[in-house]
Specification:
about 475 residues, alpha/beta, 15 helices, 19 strands
């Protein structure tokens, strides 16, 4: 799929489909031109209620007179569209046309500012890409070419790169666990080194043992697949230390270990590496946009499996920073992986750290399936993330980090236990556990367990992996 701009008028353009964005009560720009060419046909559709301006609402208009294109898709942008609205509208329109194989589609949206246009373009790339990676007959077909009627070629190019980064994250998460395991994930992510200013370092089992990553290795020991740790560095700036470190949980399959999940709980556990995949998709977008920042991504990659060598309830693991951890639930494994990866991160001396993990079902209970939970030791840094997410239209909500939750992590035989004292506040106790491994670093934890993977589709994106937080992190990096 190629993305380009066009200066051709909506009445003269020849394409398999034209998408027209509708905003507000008064037709303007290309929408007004279309209405005039069709002798008021567009206004009639709006007046009758057949076409709507509600965000991401789509209407097919077949064989409109007065223009060369035989199919027009009308998509709502809302009254005062935000970048998030534009992402959804672009995605919904692209998804609507992706049910059939077409060669070309052209988008005619009202005049948008750069963030809005970037988001609309990114949404169109995400919307027409499905999770049907291994189906003989696809569910969604991306057009061979998408055109945008604008002279803002830079915004279109950046939107393309952001959308491609989101889709890389989605593809990694959507791949089945017999395709994506620690070694194969590392091999695919290592291709980022082909981009300018990107270097990749991979720690294998022997290196992890030499680095005393006992917490991560404890989780991995039940699997026949060896673990990996990756350090992906993008140096778009000459700054010695990274402006930002992005850390991702990469449990490529989570059976729960000896604390075995039920069958229904295991069906989507290929998605337990969504945090790591988000790191990869974000670095790809940042590098292709050639942002002027120094960003490092770190991912810890393991399988949490059941065997005669699995780590057990009651085991005590020694993490890389020397703290000992009593294991009381082998399904609370992501925090054990992140403990060692966060310690490696501190050695790189970044200005700010953010980690992403499908960490707790408790966060889904608290916030539902569409909102990312935030936990921090630096309110200013967390506020920056909240603002960045709002700018691109991703939903986040900060939860408390009250000190008394740390009391639940006290163990009688080790420095820490890997779960809280009960079922309540589980997302917070998990975050408090991670806080034990970030020292004095400026740090925010993102629990993406809810929005990282969806069982069913939305109007603007297929079901499966969402690529959540890639757009927010790219937006943050731009301001570094």
């Amino acid at each position: 799929m190629t993305i380009a701009t066009t200066s051709e008028s909506i009445t003269n353009l020849q394409a398999d489909a034209i998408i027209v964005g509708l905003s507000g009560s008064e037709l303007q720009g290309s929408a007004a031109e279309l209405n005039q060419a069709t002798s008021g046909g567009l206004q009639s559709l709006l007046d009758s209620g057949q076409a709507k301006t509600k965000v991401a609402a789509t209407t097919f208009w077949l064989q409109p007179s007065g223009i060369n294109t035989k199919v027009v898709i009308l998509v709502g942008l809302g009254e005062n569209p935000t970048a998030g609205d534009c992402f959804k509208a672009g995605g919904a329109a692209a998804k609507a046309i992706a049910n059939k194989q077409i060669s070309s589609a052209a988008f005619y949206f009202p005049e948008l500012d750069c963030p809005q246009l970037e988001s609309a373009v990114a949404g169109s790339i995400v919307g027409c890409t499905g999770q049907d990676l291994h189906k003989k007959t696809k569910s969604l077909y991306a057009p061979e070419q998408i055109l945008w009627a604008t002279s803002n070629t830079e915004a279109v190019a950046n939107g393309d790169k952001i959308g491609t980064g989101v889709n890389l994250t989605r593809e990694l998460v959507n791949q089945p666990p017999n395709y994506i395991y620690p070694e194969s994930f590392a091999d695919q992510a290592a291709q980022l080194a082909e981009l300018n200013n990107v270097t990749v370092e991979i720690w294998d089992q022997a290196r992890l043992e030499a680095e005393n990553c006992g917490s991560l290795l404890g989780v991995a020991q039940g699997s026949d697949k060896e673990p990996r740790l990756m350090i992906i560095r993008y140096t778009g700036s000459s700054a010695e230390n990274p402006h930002l470190a992005i850390v991702g949980k990469g449990v490529t399959y989570d059976s729960g270990g000896l604390s075995l999940k039920p069958s229904d709980g295991q069906k989507t556990m290929k998605c337990d590496m969504a945090g790591a995949a988000t790191v990869v998709g974000t670095i790809k977008a940042i590098a292709e946009m050639e942002l002027s920042c120094h960003v490092v991504g770190l991912v810890g990659l393991v399988e949490n499996m059941v065997s005669g060598n699995s780590y057990r309830l009651g085991d005590v693991l020694t993490s890389r920073n020397g703290k000992t951890i009593e294991v009381l639930n082998t399904d609370a494994e992501g925090r054990l992986v992140l403990a060692d990866v966060l310690d490696v991160t501190l050695g790189l001396k970044p200005q700010h750290v953010v980690d992403l993990a499908t960490l707790t079902g408790a966060c889904c209970v608290a916030l539902g399936l569409d909102i990312v939970g935030l936990f921090t030791n630096d309110q200013t840094w967390c506020d920056q993330i909240v603002n960045s997410a709002a700018e691109v239209g991703e939903e986040v909500w900060q939860l408390p980090m009250t000190a008394h939750f740390s009391d639940q992590l006290k163990s009688k035989i080790a420095d820490l236990r890997n779960i809280g004292a009960g079922r309540w506040g589980g997302a917070i106790t998990a975050a408090k556990f991670l806080e034990e491994f970030v020292g004095d670093a400026s740090w925010t934890h993102m629990d993406i367990a809810g929005p990282a993977f969806a069982d069913s589709e939305k109007s603007y994106i297929d079901g499966g992996a969402s690529g959540v937080m890639v757009r927010t992190l790219v937006n943050i990096a731009r301001g570094m």
